[in-house]
Write a structure and sequence with these properties.
The chain has eight helices and no strands. By secondary structure, the chain is mostly helical. The chain is flat. The two termini are 42 Å apart.
Length: 231
Amino acid sequence: MSLLETIQTRALSLTTRVGNVTLRFFEGAGILFLNLRDSFFFAMRGDVDLKKVVTQTAIIGFDSLLMSVLICTIAGSVLALQSAQRFAQSGATAYVGGLVALAIVREIAPIFTCLAVGARAGTAIAAEIANMQVTEQIDALRILRINPLRYLMVPRLLASLCALPMLTMIGSVVAIAGGMVVAQTVTGLHYSKFLESVWLSLRLSDIRIGLFKAMIFGILMAGISCTIGLN
């Protein structure tokens, strides 16, 4: 085989692999969109088992609380450590609290909380539903004329939609407290100065943005986990 034919063969193989990956991505995204659409249709119609929603909220939220709080605390402490050391060199330690609070509430807490919940609860949801699929329990639901999305996905979706904002708020408070302790330890910044900076810098819109991100992450986490399990 000549060099040109080898290059053409490898280019064709690479193009084929990229095309297959792209097709699988859009196929999965389409299935996810349809599942979310049908699930929200059931939810808006009121076809929801509230007992299952409460149970799933406890499973997703409470069982992931320790991990999410730990990660947010570490992130807030590291951010406060780095910013306090730099700000102390320029005499701007009074702005440490505002910087830490804004970064945590708007970005760090929603993202890190979702990563923690996805790593723990998301994988558990996917594995549980996939096990039901393998053992033909999903087929049994269809035989009983029970929609699997309504029975399995809707409670987990609503539970995640409720649990993620609550975990984000708790993680934000704990992370700011951890940053306050670190700032006081490293630079001697008094707690009152730190909290005053937080109060002056943080706005209600910042909290709304963080909670909105947590809700979006919760929808995606539950939707992706349930879709993977069902497929």
